[in-house]
Amino acid sequence: MKKNFVLISILISVAAAAQNINPDSLQHHSIQEVVVIGTNRISAKDSKPLSSIDEYLQKSAKIEMIKRGAYAWEPLLNNMPTERTVIAIDGMRIFGACTDKMDPVTSYVEISNLSEAEISSGQAGTAHGNTIGGAIDLKRNRTGFGEKKWSFGVNSGFESVNRQKIFGGSAAYKAPKFFADFNVMSRDADNYKAGGGAEVPYSQFRKINFSGNSGVKLGDNKMLEASVIYDKATDVGYPALPMDISLAEALISSVKFQLVPVSDFFTNWDTKVYFNNITHRMDDTKRPAVPIHMDMPGWSKTFGYFTNLNAELPDHHFTVNLNGFSNLSTAEMTMYPANSNEKLMFMYTWPQVRTLFQGIYLDDHFNLNGNSSLQISGSLGFHSNKVESEFGLNSLQIFYPEMDGQKNRLLKSISAKYKYSVNMFEFGFGGGYGDRAPSVSEGYGFYLFNSSEKYDYVGNPNLNNESSLEANAFAAFKNERVSVKLSSSYFHISDYIVGKVIGGLVPMTIGGKGVKQYGSLDYATIFNADLNTQVQLFSFLKWNSQFTYARGKDYSKENLPFMSPLSYRSALQFYKNKFSAEFSVFGNSRYRDFADVYGETETPDYTIFNVNAGYQFSFNGVKVLTKIGVENIFDRLYTSYADWNKIPRPGRNFYLNLNLNF
Fold it and tell me: What is the pTM of this model?
């Protein structure tokens, strides 16, 4: 029945696209995909306005999430983990402080301080740094200049599946030469219940997020802006991991100067300097049976800048971007033997690794004629790693006696995209080449435990740059009532970095199978495809559908991990006056092409049904949106290929969201 549902949805979506052709309704598609986020706007179109950032990002066909618990999911872009992608906030580079990826960059922001997520696939994302899979740039909310006005917002919500309480508030002021805004959001959740009512232990979390932003006009075309984000999470459980978090804390700050327009040729110039400080502490004190207690704190500090210059000539749009950063990543492990007379055991798991980067990015997007355009971009960067801890360096030299404390690399990228539009149809294709340096864990990690594979990992500073040849294409149709877009991409990744078993070494983690050292495969290939459709059935009724599929193999035809089977999302949306309602369904086919070499197993298929309704009204200048809904209506017990160690997902969840703006 589920397979029939998927097939029928595809056939109806494509058939609907062949009707109602209106040759005057063509709208050009941007190269980047944008996911709209934020509670500063009241919109009945949001099925759950107070969703987490993770839930918003999952709306993109390009993104899936690895879930290790109910909090801080790791975004996969083009089915690639964060080592192969770039995640930025307003162009700022930020690096997590956890060796187990408990704190992706997305965990340190909230919907209350973001407006949208710009998603760039493959080499289109190199404006933010060298990448293989692409980039996600999380854009900040900003009030902007205007007539003098105060505005306020209040948000609250509740979810039954984990008794999550959500509270937030905002205040903003704008004037012709000054603006300022401030917001706060808190979340407090207990353990969630899986389908059938079984409680998933160690899935609770507490979080509070503050954000501020202000700007002042220094002249008719000059502006200075400052912003800050402070995020603090405590008592965060990770049911799929052997440890939890006692503290995850981030301070993210920046100052930007903007000049617009610069001249008839230069249309915009903005320069930003930024600093962020991340602190992360793993905790095992609440686990009932711990063979040996460990403290595992981590720190990440980044100073950076970028200066971006835009220019225009007839039919040409130029961008030049200079960017650089300095990051210091440190992680420690202290083990406390049960016998207090025994000595403590200490080691660096990230041995104070200093990463320096300086790069330049160039882009020219130009019209070839009235129907076609070409975009060419390229980047060149200098990347340097240096181990600043002598003790940490000596530890790594056990495996690499001849290693130097510093490693320099040259990173490069080039790409081209062609787009052709005629009537209501649009087609495009492109290609590119790019490489990346190994991450801190891949290059310098020391006995990092992977709880899915049950191996300790050791970094390898001698790894080559991982490089990718990429091809992509899309075809789209759009008129006043129907839009359809089919996209695909193919990556041939040379020197693909994975862990390889080292024989004869004893794991440090109790219960571990052995030790793996990061090494390189000759190559691996990843294919992605997605189909997005939207049909305006009536003025009050809209139908959206999305289908995605991925396939990844290495040079020996072994499957790669975390490759999406056929997955689907479909929603029927009703809007009439101030009332809205939505019925939606999502699911995966059976995960058959699993990577047993990397500890994966087969996962059954599933289909989940949701429903929600909302009402939007105003009184005395106050705009109010109420939203109620039920997720996983039939309380299905299920797990997906992206759930670490097969932890079950939440069961039936009743939620209520209330948003007020005035």
Answer: 0.93
